[in-house]
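Today's session is about reading a structure prediction critically. Students often jump straight to the picture, but the first step is always the sequence itself: look for stretches that repeat, for charged clusters, for runs of hydrophobic residues. Only then move on to the predicted structure, which in these notes is written as discrete structure tokens rather than atom positions. Here is the chain we will use throughout the hour.
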Amino acid sequence: MTDDTLTLDTASAWAIFIISVIALVALVGIAIVSLVVVPRNRRPQTALAWLLLIYILPFVGFLLFLLLGSRKLPKRRREKQQQINDYILETTEGMDRVRRDHPWPPWLEPIVELNRHLGAMPLVGGNAARLYTDYAGSIEAMTEAIRASTRVVHVEFYILALDGTTADFFDALEEAVARGVTVRVLYDHIASLRVKGYRRTMRRLRAAGIEHYAMLPVRPFRLQWQRPDLRNHRKFVIVDGSVAFTGSQNMIERGYHRGRRRDGSRLQWKELVVRFEGPIVSGIDALFATDWYSETDELLIREAASIPDVDPEAGLDAQVVPSGPAFEGENNLRLFNSLLYAAQHQIQICSPYFVPDESMLYAITTAAQSGLDVQLFVSEVGDQPLVFHAQRSYYEQLLRAGVRIWLYKTPTVLHAKHLTIDDEVAVIGSSNMDMRSFSLNLEVSVMVRGEPIIRALREVERSYRENSSELTLETWLKRPRHMAAFDDLARMTAAVQ
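Below is the predicted structure for this chain, in token form.
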């Protein structure tokens, strides 16, 4: 062996030693930094899931945490939200005109105040509402309202797509522009971009002369960046400040352009949309103005400053509850938990993606164990495998507590999102009962009180049961062990956020 060979071997050994030391120092550094940074202002189960990922795959896990670990929107966007909140608080006191006659629940007042404190929106009386459960029927109703518009149309959807089902809706928008109506459109950038025909949709909006903007765009080359899975999940259409539609439905064909499944069927989404008239429309329009301001720096809130007259005979009180990473707290989770603990007799929950945090799980199981009639409507089939299996991991605990679980039959995805408490209060909107909707998505929920809306929702719940099979604990415990293991694994991934 020559001196040159010895020198080379020595150099290689030193290089390996130095690289090993650097890697070891990096690993120790990642472990220490993660232990300090990751748990800060996070739920224990979320922090534990992140730490587990980082300790198993240190470099990959830490890079993912740097990319996805922050649940906050950029500082400027949060400042804009606060500006809007301050404006609403200063100018909407006159909207708090609610009939607090019998049977006004004594537990409702603190929840109204909580919502007002968190999201700035007041409870308003004198509203009317109509529910739409037919997919094509709700799009037709929105289209007809746009065709009757005379002043301004505001459209905001998580997914906006031009296809055979939505073509007439786009035609109505174009016709409104031609009549001189101001039409503004917002759509979530990533969610709409993933859908077939995105470029065709954008060309149609431009050709029609419709002012449109992507919400929370992820375009690094334009210096537009935030955590990419922070999304705007809201859906609404507001016409002339007098009529508003909101709920679970996106503007896309009912099958979301999905292909056929192995059995030859295609998934079909079932939704719930509510049409509001009355003062609550101003609150929904203010939320559109918030999102428009965030994307364009143009403040529209004063367009909706005039408050519609309150009908003293109308029986529906309503309150808009916005939520998402633009707010300090998890407004929708606080609303849901407050209502769950306030329930005296009955709780009915419909959520397509049901992955509760520990606080909500305790609230629901406590209610069931206290003898309340607690029912959960979910789908027999899922369109998002990880979320679907994470959801299934909660079924045994819910069933043992006494919760009745209804599985809507395949191939329908029950995508509606609503909650009813006793015969008193309901919540309808875009928010799922999962950790993504609580922390990562901008959502809209509307809390409503009034006998007509509760009666209509009871009919909707009855129709769900007619098209569902009830899951029993005995049946659930017989599922294959490998599926149970996969459900539990998926539950862990759901906590990483």
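Discussion point for the tutorial: The chain has a mean pLDDT of 87.
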